[in-house]
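Researcher: Structure for this, please.
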Amino acid sequence: MQHLLLLFFSALLGLKQCTESTGESRGQTSFESQTTAEPVNKNAEIITGAQQTTRYLPLLKDKRVALVVNQTSVIGKKHLVDSLLALGVNIKLIYAPEHGFRGEADAGAHISNAKDAQTGLPIFSLYGKNKKPAAEQLKDIDAVIFDIQDVGTRFYTYISTMHYVMEACAENNKQLLVLDRPNPNGYYVDGPVRDAEHQSFVGMHPIPIVHGLTVGELAQMINGEKWLREQLTCNLKIIPVQHYTHKSRYSLPVKPSPNLPNDLAVQLYPSICLFEGTNVSVGRGTEMPFQVLGSPFYTKKNYSFTPKSKPGATNPPHLNQVCFGYKLTPANVQGKFTVQYILDFYRNSTDKDKFFTNLFTTLAGTPALKEQIIAGKSEEQIRASWAPALQAYKKMRKQYLLYPDFE
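Model: Predicted structure, token format:
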């Protein structure tokens, strides 16, 4: 009898907890409550390049090694630096990309050279004034390892850092070992291809916004297409991911930068990042960066948020101003790149003259997209304009794939 009573009260407690949880999530459903329903594999079979130490440790024997890494460079829950030191690898220095070695700095923030408190290794920044490893730093290095998680977009700067690392290795006769990782947006290719006049650190290569490549595949493309300075070729070795295809939906074990905190933000990033070149907030300074959109000048007022200063977004756009817009959830996102969000915000802005900043064309990689939005073109018309260049890119891309494609 006591046992039955215990079961009864346990069931009541469970029902109460379920009811309370449902009550807290009324209105807009939180991303956390949706993550289990997303069609993302749990990475059980996928083995990253970094995990395959038996494949690359022989390549590092008796060599002095530099690592290009950040907070995503992990084997399980252990950082690659710590793992390799424990395995006897002679690491001499660390290079850090945008957001720093620990991935805590704001987007665009200055990254200083430093020393790692845990290992005592020197850390050299590859973001800001010095984007390329210096010859002086590489003179006592035999091999460089690149192991950073990318999110598959042209304007995410980790691939630009890889470009400069490849160039430095080519100039100084050093081997580059790329420990490949899955591309969480690698299941499609989309967007305008960057034109020749708009090369920048957020657009190093003539590729579309969603390029559909892992960093290893892109490194092969950079070599094969002779995109390095003076058509140099990097001595490149890639450790491929096991059990990965371009149909895989990969959930990132570590957030790749401060304002991409979860799978939904990563999925939305290709479409939402274009707003960084407008007067619309992408949610920096909120609990939902790259999952909300809003502006003081948006006419629809069904949803609002107020950006605040916080770690990773110390001075976000529209700081302390109420922004009107909408919250994006797995239920209402399209799942792939779209310009529909930006078309909607432009049409419903009360300040169209100040809607775009100079950064927009740099991010788009072409002036055409801004012109088309202002002209009132539909998404279908805009897509038709970039289709020929996108098809040519898709054909070129096939040459450099390391994994079965999505089509």
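Researcher: Any notable elements?
Model: The domain at 53-239 is CATH 3.40.50.12170 (Rossmann fold). The chain has two domains: 53-239, 263-366.
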